[in-house]
Amino acid sequence: MIRIQEVIVVEGRYDVNTVKQVFDTVVLETGGFRIFSDKERLGMFRKMAERRGLLILTDSDGAGMMIRNYLKGAIPSHLVKHAYIPDIMGKESRKRTASKEGKLGVEGMKPEVLRQALRRAGATILDETGECVPKVGEQITKADLYALGLSGQAGSEKLRRQILHALELPEHLSANALLDFLNTVSDFEELSALVEKIRENS
Known about the structure:
Blueprint: E1 2-3, E2 7-10, H1 13-20, E3 23-24, E4 27-29, H2 39-52, E5 54-56, H3 62-74, E6 80-82, H4 111-121, H5 142-147, H6 156-166, H7 175-185, H8 188-201
């Protein structure tokens, strides 16, 4: 498992699963073409890019290039690195038929191919201390979300929606994705203060 500083952006959830088996970092998905109309998700990408940098890893077909080019124009270039997978013909095992262009996507890449792609893109490899990653304060855990009333309690769903709204994040963001985001751009102290502020204004 290789630890890198940048947040990796891929197209879909199967890509996320493949990449997370090789790299230890935050991995986000565009939801395919949904990113074109999802301003909140794009805003989240921008915030992550400002804190740690983005590394875009889309499929090598036309659709993947369209998504890559959209992000390229929407996020400052100095915050983005581009990793490219080679054109390898084939079909992912879970699919009945090959893609329109007959190429394997990110999910079909072997670990060594992905490692080579990210090295060529200039990914920042971290040592065991992880000192390259900016640390603001204490990391947030799932237990912290529960303690703050953001999960597993009466009213948690409403409070979580208020937090997502305050942070300008997508309302359907999963708990794991929220945790990844919070630990990239915030810390426990800041989250606690935000929860307290929301409760005072409710």
